[in-house]
Amino acid sequence: MLRIILYSQWKWSRGWLLPVAVVGFAIPYFMLRVGYSGERYWDAAGLLEQVAAWGRGYPALAAAIGLLVGTSAWIHDHRGDHVYALVLPTPRWYYVLLRYTAGLVLLAPAMITVFLGALTATWFTTLPAGIYAYPIQLAARFMLATLLAYSLFFAIASGTQRAAGAVLTIVGIVVVTQLLAGIAGSDLNVLEAAFDRITIWPGPLEVFVGRWMLVDL
Amino acid sequence: MSNAIETHDLRYRAGRDFEIRDLSLAVPTGSIYGFLGPNGSGKTTTIRLVLGLLRPSRGSISVLNRTIPGESTAALAETGYVPERPHLYPSFTVDEILNMHRAFFTRWDPAKAAQLVETFRLRLNQKIRNMSKGETGKLMMLLALAQRPELLVLDEPTDGLDPVVRRDVLMALLEFVSEHGATVFISSHLVHELERICDWVGVMDDGHLVAEMPMQAFKSGIKRLRVENVPAIVAQTPFVILARDTDALGNSEVWTVRGWQDPMTQYFEGSTPSLREVVDLDLEEGFVELLQVARERHPEG
């Protein structure tokens, strides 16, 4: 069963899985190679600046992969009102597990290419003294962010329109509260507080923020 | 006689204006049960309840001696379903959807599937999104039959198909039933089609079951009688008068009756009213009469 479910999700997502894998492999190269001309110590600051700038691509890539794989797992079932899945002689929880597992398998190529890209780029670059490469740590963080994004979007996409509406309503209430607070001249900053709550440890999205450094001090 | 499908006192509310209520139906094992009703009468909702896709607010459902929805997985493994609207993945080819089904249905019969691909002249590499309505209808029937089900639940399986495709699909169905003795629960508003193949009939209207009986009883028991000299008060009759209409001249009445048998002509002998004519009604006329009577009795719906 897993094989055919994996095949179905591969069929629906293969169009962009390869480009995403290429991007994952290429980011480390651009981080270290483009615009960096030497190994002199006075280049170190410029290098770190460049690495930090390109590093923003990783959380964006992780979120994009999670979104694409998570939603493509369900979009075709949604179109058929889930009737096909519901009349298969399989418990519903097991069908969800099959779809989730198949998505995890499809995430693997992107994770592997990011790791290989980071390893290759640091292998062929001579770093200034005092600067060290962290390809394994970066790949591990990318893997964690991708899994988190995938799980989040998978859960949202598997829900009903009513569930999606509830999520949007909560977001809308936060935005409207912020607007009203601004009009009333209040110092209340709901958006910032909400953002901090989810992106600062132990917030669930903490892994996405901060600097994604392939090389650092 | 055991029943392949049984519901008792089923109730389900779909939206603000429609409700399935007090639905008790029994589909005898081995029968071909025609589930008739006008559009919007609750046929599809009933089927979805029977398959465990919806949960009733009250009542019980049993399919192949399994409680629904609790044991729906086991029941679905032995049930072939053709939905009203095809729900297959459009980007899949015929071959891919056959593989998908084979992976999930342990009773899948590859030889039967191959035979039906040939009979229906389907191309294995054709994408479902590029198939005509007729080809999709054939594929849906193929998928249901190649599962070798004990029960076939068919929701308007031939709706919108041309006569040639309709005949092909029904032939394949009847061939399967004669080989395997499966029970068929088929909904349709194409009354003539069901008249040819069904041995039981149930009629839905506005969320409730109006009638359920063997097809023979339904066809032979509903008649139109032309009677004359009708007194103001009609005495107890051995049949059920469903409707009474006075003809244009006012000399006679036309009665639509149920439970008619030929010996009942004795009722009219030597008394008033007098019987002039007995007209056979085909299933469609009987169906229409039945609905009219049901609506007169429950005008609020």
Tags for this model:
heterodimer, A: 217 residues, mainly alpha, two-stranded antiparallel ribbon, 2 strands, flat, B: 301 residues, alpha/beta, Rossmann fold, 2 domains, 6-stranded mixed β-sheet, 5-stranded antiparallel β-sheet, 9 helices, 15 strands, 32% helix, elongated
Q: How would you describe this structure to a colleague?
A:
The complex is a heterodimer of chains A (217) and B (301). Chain A is mostly helical and 217 residues long. Chain A has nine helices and two strands, in the order H-H-H-H-H-H-E-H-H-H-E. Chain A has helices at 2-32, 44-55, 57-72, 75-79, 83-86, 92-123, 135-158, 161-183, 190-199, and strands spanning 132-133, 215-216. In chain A, helix 6 runs antiparallel to helix 7. Chain B is an alpha/beta fold. Chain B has two domains: 3-214, Rossmann fold (3-Layer(aba) Sandwich), CATH 3.40.50; 223-280. Chain B is built from nine helices and 15 strands. The longest helix of chain B is centred in the middle third of the chain and has 18 residues, at 163-180. The interface between A and B is medium-sized, with 19 and 23 residues.
